[in-house]
Amino acid sequence: MTLLSVDSLSVRLRTRPVLSDVSFSVGPRECVGLIGPNGAGKTTLLRAILGLVPHSGHSSLAALPPRDRGRAAAWMPQARDIAWPVSVETLVALGRTPHLSGLQGISAADRAHVDAALDTMGLDALRHRTATRLSGGEQAMVLIARALAQDTPLLMADEPIAGLDPANQISTMEVFAGLAKEGRAVIVSIHDLGLAARHCTRLILLGDGGIAADGPPDAVLTPDNLARIFHVSAHYAHTPQGPVFQPLEVTR
């Protein structure tokens, strides 16, 4: 079963080519880390997959009507804009919007999804707080909870752990890995290669306008790929808690 199919996708922003001929598919039980240096096109690729930027080629999500797309995939963009001073609970409940019809209100089943998302992200004590008055890290956690409440087969998140403290970075990646183990799929853009190596089942490395490598973490985070795409060397080791990956120095 395939939850996302991308075929020969290319993107030009103004006159500049950003991505060329990108193809891959994602199925259940995959936690896919989208990695690459700054400017490699990670955000652009995620937005193109969702049909949010002009592109050529095919994305199975972009081809869907908006409501169907919202039921197929939850999206957490890099920008953490919360426009209204609503409660945390209300904001997370907005994740149920694609599942509602017309003027239909939130049902008991919808509220159960909201409660579960708040609990998963450790936000139950904040449910009645005004979201705009939270710290930046807390707001990020609330927006992740909103995506979880959407309860879709696929979750796509663009740098969701940026700015979080180490404990919340780890716990968030554990949540994503857990979703994959339950049978869903996650695509997460991430700069922390150590957390990507530990928690993702698969890494897609972007570089030079396309996919430079795609596979299990230890097959992608090779010395050659690190030097060629990231221009760094690194230490990589296996521990009882999982792989440890630490960049050491710039090689260019």
Automatic annotation (TrEMBL):
<feature type="domain" description="ABC transporter">
    <location>
        <begin position="4"/>
        <end position="233"/>
    </location>
</feature>
<dbReference type="Pfam" id="PF00005">
    <property type="entry name" value="ABC_tran"/>
</dbReference>
<dbReference type="GO" id="GO:0005506">
    <property type="term" value="F:iron ion binding"/>
</dbReference>
<dbReference type="InterPro" id="IPR003593">
    <property type="entry name" value="AAA+_ATPase"/>
</dbReference>
<keyword id="KW-0547">Nucleotide-binding</keyword>
<keyword id="KW-0813">Transport</keyword>
<dbReference type="InterPro" id="IPR027417">
    <property type="entry name" value="P-loop_NTPase"/>
</dbReference>
<keyword id="KW-0067">ATP-binding</keyword>
<dbReference type="GO" id="GO:0016887">
    <property type="term" value="F:ATP hydrolysis activity"/>
</dbReference>
<protein>
    <submittedName>
        <fullName>Hemin import ATP-binding protein HmuV</fullName>
        <ecNumber>3.6.3.-</ecNumber>
    </submittedName>
</protein>
<keyword id="KW-1278">Translocase</keyword>
<comment type="function">
    <text>Part of the ABC transporter complex HmuTUV involved in hemin import. Responsible for energy coupling to the transport system.</text>
</comment>
<dbReference type="InterPro" id="IPR017972">
    <property type="entry name" value="Cyt_P450_CS"/>
</dbReference>
<dbReference type="GO" id="GO:0005524">
    <property type="term" value="F:ATP binding"/>
</dbReference>
<dbReference type="InterPro" id="IPR017871">
    <property type="entry name" value="ABC_transporter-like_CS"/>
</dbReference>
<dbReference type="GO" id="GO:0016705">
    <property type="term" value="F:oxidoreductase activity, acting on paired donors, with incorporation or reduction of molecular oxygen"/>
</dbReference>
<keyword id="KW-0378">Hydrolase</keyword>
<dbReference type="InterPro" id="IPR003439">
    <property type="entry name" value="ABC_transporter-like_ATP-bd"/>
</dbReference>
